[in-house]
User: Fold this.
Amino acid sequence: MSRATTNGHKPGRFVRVPKADLDERDPDYIRETLPRLWLLSSLYFRGEVRGLGNVPEEGPVLLVGNHSGGNLTPDTHVFTLAFSTYFGVERVFHQLAHNLVLSMPGLSFLRKYGTVAASQENARRALEAGAAVLVYPGGDYEVHRPSWERHRVDFGGRKGFIRLAIEQDVPIVPVVGIGGQETALFLSRGEHLARAFGLDRLFRLKVLPLSLALPWGINVGDMLGHIPLPAKITVEALPPIHLREEFGPDPDIDEVYDHIVRLMQETLEALAAERRFPVIG
Amino acid sequence: MRIAEHAEVQAPPSLVWEQVSDPSRVLDFFAGVTRWECVGGPRTGLGARYRMLMRVGSAEVGGLIETVEFRPERDLAWTSVTGVDQHGRWRLRESRNGTRVELRLQFGVAGGGIWSWLAEQLAGPIVRGNVKRTLAELKRAVEHEQVRAEAARRRAART
Assistant:
């Protein structure tokens, strides 16, 4: 499930980003399925989420994460569980995902969890409604980075989330995850292949990733997902950044971007230093 | 799932009650609990509401709870308003050596079905471990308090 971006990409020829129906989120469904998520997170990924006390108790907030794990994104599952139990399913929480994810058969349940197609407009509407919104600026680009770059935050220069936070005057809470890129051996994003096949123009896909993953062996595209290795996932939420308070009334986008990426990179390196072995954690 | 554990504390019920009824002390002895905050209304007593969370596996679970029984030096019970369905009770009874303290926690995992049942079975031992550690910690804290109170009395008598 590659959750994606507010990067203001032009829609693909065959894929329009649909306007989100925020009312599709179903708190009762979330409450009833949390035990499943808890089992997956606790037993399989040995999930650990720190710093949720840093997320403002109420009001809209933009949670900005680094993205890992191919199309399955286990860090998102672990964080969604932790957020939903910590604040309660009553707190409205939306996650932005690539629109292809939401149109995949069998994944429509994500809408009930509050997942909406990634676009500036959908994110704006969710924030205006007072929701907490989780965005992964790196999206498909970052989630398929090679495994040997697993300790690197790479948003690919996408800065739309900063413009959104300034426009909506909401705090940004960086959310740093580690472990997701150890759930398979990711070899290449396959950007050249994606360009050669015109996937960007057609489907807003920048990548056609290549990995070694169960049960396929060589896995091209990761469209059918894979069985992730049970890597330990740790996620840490950092203190909120109030852009106008810290960067003045008219924040410089590039300065904010560098600041956030640096903070997240430092945290990711600290989390990496705690790990003794890949997968085991 | 219903979990009930008890401990014998060598101190009078009044001292134990001081600990368990004071929301500002809960985090000091309640194992696994990461949050116990007053949410409006009275700080303690009948109708007091708290936001509580306990770390169980990879999540902090809990929600808003409300005190539904408050009989000083005997019973303090709460029930959930939001979040995980739960009922909890501190039951204090005077015993030969001091106080018999019982902590009961009853909780239900939402959803039903095999996954919820499995989650409940796996969460049970974690919560039971927390309850046991809580009682041990409470016993230590209260008995230590008792020793200090007696020492203070002896000092006062000497001077």
User: Anything to note?
Assistant: Chain A touches chain B through 24 residues (CB under 8 Å).
